[in-house]
TrEMBL record:
Topology with respect to the bilayer: Multi-pass membrane protein
Organism encoding this protein: Streptomyces palmae
GO CC term (a single one): plasma membrane
Protein's name according to its UniProt entry: Protein-export membrane protein SecG
Gene that encodes it: secG
Pfam families: SecG (PF03840)
InterPro entries: SecG
Subcellular localization, as worded in the UniProt entry: Cell membrane
Statement: the UniProt record of this protein carries the keyword Magnesium: no
Biological function: Involved in protein export. Participates in an early event of protein translocation.
Transmembrane segments: 53-72
Keywords: Cell membrane, Membrane, Protein transport, Translocation, Transmembrane, Transmembrane helix, Transport
The family this protein is said to belong to: Belongs to the SecG family.
Amino acid sequence: MGFSIALIVFSVLLMMLVLMHKGKGGGLSDMFGGGMQSSVGGSSVAERNLDRITVVVGLLWFVCIVVLGLLMKLDN
């Protein structure tokens, strides 16, 4: 039960973190107004930290899926 709730929380958090990234151009982000380039070039510290947090949350999400799969296999 706890891992199911954790999976839901990590899923929502991962979705929000991915949506917070700025568009790199050429994709759907340009279609919806994300194509405006800022005058600041390169990757800022905030963007790098957001990348790191997204990777960590993604790994935790993956671990929850693996643990839930193992628990379901053990229940049968």
